[in-house]
Design goal:
The complex is a heterodimer of chains A (201) and B (109). Chain A has 201 residues and is an all-alpha fold. In chain A, α2 runs antiparallel to α3 and α4 packs antiparallel against α5. The two termini of chain A are 33 Å apart. In chain B, 61% of the residues lie in helices and 19% in strands. A 3-stranded antiparallel beta sheet of chain B has the order 1-3-2. Classes of the chains: A mainly alpha (201), B alpha+beta (109). The interface between A and B is medium-sized, with 26 and 32 residues.
């Protein structure tokens, strides 16, 4: 087997765990929670709550609902430090830009476009890694939300409220898409008995 | 005559091919195990589309050959059978890949 075919096998294996909709569902929930900050900047704690939910809930629900249906696999973690360093640098740059856009009043109106672009880029990376066309569609929707938000802020609407509504709209879309994907997944993959899962019976 | 000798030489790896791996189902099982750190029985069954009995039989042969390790553990009180490639299995799989590549390259010349 060539290296390319093994890469395709790995992609297929990883894709099995990306079609349950849980990542999309909880990303939607997180975005809905983030919106609170843009209405009242004193509630910075919502970022921690949203990220905690988006990171911890999918594995928890996967253990309960996904693994008993399609099995379990532990994938090899990338050992390269370069990739981790690049990710951290990118995250720092994004946070700095976010801070600057928020602090400098002249650039407040760009916040919806900035967030739409960042989320769209994240969705695009997920799409390229997973090969799932749904992520490409979501990347486009996220980018369009940024453009729509920019339109409202240019018209004179308060940037904070525009971003809040942008995030709530995205939360509704992502939560709905995630739920539909999850229900479809649960229907397609019936639960197996413990004996069956372990090669007995 | 020289051409025949060259062909026989380059096809020699084919006769030495590892017959444990050189079986479509077992090759597929090893391919999946080579791209993960570990996986359970149900995952392999879903990915390879083999039946339960068929998969069990192939896993036994691979375990006997020392290419995979089968470990039973409990995760939140639920038993789980985890499978992973041994170092010997990984080496054998890589050698199989290079042998087959050598054979296929010489056939295409």
């Amino acid at each position: 087997m060539t290296r390319i075919e093994l890469r395709q096998i790995e992609q297929k294996a990883r894709r099995a765990f990306q079609q349950d909709g849980l990542n999309i569902l909880f990303a939607g929930v997180a975005l809905g929670i983030f919106a609170i900050f843009f209405i009242d900047v004193r509630h910075g704690w919502v970022f921690a709550l949203g990220i905690a939910l988006a990171v911890s809930m999918p594995p928890f629900f996967r253990r309960q609902f996904v693994h008993p249906r399609i099995g379990y696999a532990r994938f090899t973690q990338s050992k390269g430090m370069g990739r981790h360093v690049a990710t951290i640098c990118l995250a720092v740059i994004c946070l700095l830009l976010f801070y600057c856009l928020g602090k400098i009043e002249r650039f407040n109106r760009l916040m919806p476009l900035y967030l739409g672009t960042v989320f769209s880029a994240a969705a695009l990376v997920a799409a390229i890694k997973s090969g799932l066309s749904l992520y490409y569609v979501l990347a486009l929707v996220l980018l369009l939300s940024g453009l729509a938000g920019l339109g409202f802020t240019i018209k004179g609407c308060a940037a904070g409220w525009v971003v809040a509504f942008q995030l709530w709209a995205l939360a509704v879309i992502l939560t709905f898409v995630g739920l539909v994907q999850l229900l479809y997944f649960l229907r397609r993959n019936p639960r197996r008995s413990t004996e069956e899962s372990n090669g007995k019976g | 005559m020289a051409k025949d000798e060259i062909s026989r030489e380059s096809l020699q790896p084919l006769s030495d091919i590892d017959r444990v791996i050189h079986e479509p189902a077992r090759l597929l099982i090893l391919a999946y195990l080579s791209v993960v750190e570990s996986a359970d029985f149900l995952f392999l069954m879903n990915q390879t589309a083999l039946t339960r009995g068929n998969l069990s039989s192939h896993l036994s042969k691979l375990e006997t050959a020392g290419y995979i390790e089968i470990k039973k553990e409990f995760v939140e009180k639920i038993p789980r059978t985890l499978l992973r490639l041994t170092d010997e299995g990984r080496t054998a799989f890589q050698e199989y890949q290079s042998d087959m590549k050598q054979v296929l390259d010489s056939l295409s010349q």
